[in-house]
Amino acid sequence: MHAFRSHTCADLDKSDVGQTVRLSGWVHRVRDHGGILFIDLRDHYGVTQVLADPDSPAFAAVEKVRSEWCIRIDGEVKARDTDLINPRLPTGEIEVYIRDIEVLGAAEELPLIVFGDQEYPEETRLRYRYLDLRREAMQRNMKLRSDVVASIRRRMWDSGFREFQTPIITASSPEGARDFLVPSRLHPGKFYALPQAPQQFKQLIMVSGFDKYFQIAPCFRDEDPRADRSPTDFYQLDMEMSFVTQQDVFDTLQPVLDGVFEEFGGGHKVDKHWPQIGYADAMRWYGSDKPDLRNPIKMQDVSEHFRGSGFAIFAKLLEQEGTEIRAIPAPGGGSRKFCDRMNAYAQKEGLPGMGYIFWREGENGVEPAGPLARNIGPERTEAIRRQLGLGKGDAAFFLGGKPAAFEAVAGRARNVIGEELDLTEKNRFAFCWVVDFPMYEKDEETGVVDFSHNPFSMPQGGLAALDGDPLQVLGFQYDLSCNGYEIVSGAIRNHKPEIMFKAFELAGYPPEEVTNRFGGMVNAFKYGAPPHGGCAAGIDRIVMLLADEANIREVIMFPMNQRAEDLMMGAPSQPTNEQMRELSLRVIDPKG
Q: Does residue 365 have a pLDDT over 80?
């Protein structure tokens, strides 16, 4: 017999009754029923009930074991009595009578309990992550993650892609976040960078003549943490293709992700139609470039109904250039209590509030209510109701000003309204491509123009498009949104040196800096670069959606905490003086 097990804790069933078996695993829980000791023995695969009575030669040893001890048992498989069968377990028809036991690893008092659904502070869970990972939900999430990655790989190979690995130590590159820098021992004063993405390398793979590339790639960005973003590293499905248009990329990726969500979506509906929405429209209709289309609410511009109206706040606002009034329809939200609650929400988000109108049954049919309705009069109110397609029992909320100042709050309010009024459809994965991103953005305080998205993207219209106002230039850039999360970002690449130099010049990078920072790619493009494009899909976010988790740390095996610390391994740590001397470095106290 094998030194540790003849079967896993998920293998045994009624056909094994009478066999002598060996199992190894962890003591999930111990129960004493009238002197008979029952142990739920757990391994990676499942749970088997084992037991010992005072007649068992191993009884005295079994009495000593405690939760999460790692043990090996030998015993005989027996059928459970009919009324004791556990239909929730694959092994629920049998139990194993213990003849021998060996303690493989005793456990001290546990800082967190593995059995059950007790809640623990995140700091405790991350400090003792190896215990946290033993819990059923975490085992399920990590198995799901592994299976999703395997499925993606198979689907990419089946689509004609080959997997290639790109360097982990490279040069710094402007990808929209801060780099993690690595000091060079052999070149004092110089630094490598951990790649924010394999961007330049995958483009060089296309220049090298490899037609379709993919990689499950680790990426490193020194970012502030969020619930849907790791502060240090993450994994993505990175892909690139030669001789393709934007639509070719869409048509290639959709079957891959569609298949993954069908396979692991737990029966949720997976939308087959993925609409393409322009960035400007996404912001106008949803207040977000990653809209949740499960929510049917679409915001609308209602400025004309308030221009010159009796509602002075909005009327005067519209006299200023670049302002508008936007409405958020709220079907079923037509009560003063709900309207007041949403107004308070806007105030909590830093706005003065949200004006509102709600419609109810009156003497003359559907009548508007609320201070705003009284200020603008019945004709304007009725025109708003008709434009928004609302009726009795419905409401509308209004925000005004320059869109950049209120769009984000309006988008969040739209989400809250959809949730509270039960308009957002559950058990569904709703996708959409957001396209036509602006290539550049201007800092309102400094007036400096910089890239707003991927700097290596091809501008729509090529070189000629870069001769006018940079803020009007659109790029062949695109994101894929699912249920309000960005899960894919990509672009058709700028593969012509003259366009690249001009594009970077508009963002304040002179030709010599472009050559210095991206010399490898610039030089490569001089030798017959093909048109190419691709994208990257966030593995962590995809698994988070499939696992129905709200926090990305629930699907990462060893995540950092909110302060980008690894409490388990003690990172970041203080280097030794010897290490610092080897690297020709010294630390300057930031406090002076």
A: no
SS3 assignment, position 558: coil
Q: Per residue in 188-213, is it b (16+ CB within 10 Å) or e — as a string?
A: eeeebbbbbbbbbbbbbbbbeeebbb
Q: How many CB atoms lie within 10 A of CB 65?
A: 19
Helices and strands in the chain, H and E counts: 17, 24
Closest CA to 234 of 221, 248, 215, 225: 221
- Sheet strands (E) in 221-374: 233-242, 269-270, 276-278, 300-301, 324-330, 355-362, 365-369
Per-residue DSSP letter, 120? -
Q: Locate 98 and state its tokens.
A: 């213990």
> What does the alpha-carbon distance between residue 550 and residue 513 come to, in Å, rounded to a whole number?
42
Give a three-class secondary structure readout of 412-481: HHHHHHHHHCCCCCCCEECEEEEECCECEEECCCCCCEEECCCCCECECCHHHHHHCCHHHCEECEEEEE
Mean pLDDT of 480-489: 97
Q: How confident is the model at residue 176 (pLDDT cuts 50, 70, 90)?
A: low
| CA distance linking residue 173 with residue 546, whole number of Å | 32
How far apart (Å, rounded) are the C-alpha atoms in residues 430 and 428? 6
Name residue 420's amino acid.
E
- Pairwise CA distance, residues 324 & 345, whole Å: 21
Pick from 395, 347, 156, 183: nearest CA to 260? 156
Residue 75 tokens read as 């015993």
Determine the 3-state secondary structure of 103 from DSSP.
strand
Joined tokens for residue 368: 């508007």
More confident residue, 42 or 172: 42
What are 371-429's pLDDT values in tens digits? 899 999 999 999 999 999 999 999 999 999 999 889 999 999 999 999 999 999 999 99
- Using only C-alpha atoms, the chain has a radius of gyration, in whole angstroms, of 30
Mean pLDDT over all residues of the chain?
Answer: 94
| For residues 571-589, average pLDDT | 91
Average pLDDT on 174-179 reads 72
Q: How many CB atoms lie within 10 A of CB 379?
A: 9
Q: How far apart are CA 537 and CA 241, in angstroms?
A: 15
Question: Does 346 or 434 have the greater pLDDT score?
Answer: 434
Angstrom CA distances, 334 to 172, 361, 364, 412, stand at 54, 11, 17, 19
